[in-house]
Amino acid sequence: MLDGVEVVYVNILGGSAMGLASRVGGQLPAHSTGVGKVILAYSPKAVVTARIEAGLPQLTPRTIDTADELTRELRRIRSVGTAFDVEESHLGVSCVAAPVFGADRKILAGLSVTGRTGSLDPVTLGPAVRIAAFTLSRTLRLAGI
C-alpha cells in the first residue's frame, strides 16, 4: 500500500531466501518498485507530484530517476495494466505487479510476484498477476472494502 510517497508492504508470502530489503511493514520509494509504480499509475496526479518533489533516489543503476521517465512509465502501466520492476529496487530481482482497487474503484494497493531476474518472466506472469489482482479487487468491492 502507499504511505505518503513510499510503498509499505502489508503482506509477503515467501521471499526470505532472496534477501530482499522489503519486509512486512518495510518501506521503499514508490517509484522504484513494481507495486509502487502500479499504485502511482492509478493515483491522483498530486500523489505522483509529491513523489517527484520528494526526489527519485536511485536504489540501483536501473531505478527511474527523472520526472519525464517516471511519467512515461506510469502512462505505459495504465495502458497495459501491469508494472514491471527489472532490478530497479534490488539487483538480481524482478517483479510484475497489478493494481488492486477498493469498493470505491480507487487504487487501494498493488499485488506482485517477485523472483530472481533470470528465472522470472514478467511477460508470462503478467496476465496471471492481473487476474489475481482483478479477483482481489472484485472480492474487496463485494465486501464493501
Number of helices: 4
Inertia-based shape? globular
Q: How helical, in percent, are the residues?
A: 25-40%
Q: Could you describe the largest sheet, including whether it forms a barrel?
A: 3 strands, antiparallel
Cα gyration radius (Å): 14 Å
Q: Which residue ranges are poorly predicted, with pLDDT under 50 across at least 5 consecutive positions? A: none
Q: Specify the CATH architecture.
A: 2-Layer Sandwich
**Taking all residues together, what is the mean pLDDT?**
91
Give the ordered list of helices and strands. Answer: EEEHHHEEEH
Number of domains: 1
Query: Per CATH, what is the topology?
Result: Beta-Lactamase
Give me some keywords for this one:
145 residues; 37% helix; Beta-Lactamase; 3-stranded antiparallel β-sheet; 6 strands; alpha+beta; single chain
Structure description:
- The protein is of the alpha+beta class and 145 residues long.
- The protein has a single domain (2-142), classed as GAF domain (Beta-Lactamase).
- Helices cover 37% and strands 21% of the residues.
- The chain contains four helices and six strands; from the N terminus they run E-E-E-H-H-H-E-E-E-H.
- It has helices at residues 34-41, 45-54, 67-80, 122-142, and strands at residues 2-3, 6-8, 27-29, 83-86, 93-101, 107-116.
- A three-stranded antiparallel β-sheet has the order 1-2-3, covered by helices on one side.
- A hairpin with a 5-residue loop joins strand 5 and strand 6.
- It is globular, with a radius of gyration of 14 Å.
- The two termini are 14 Å apart.
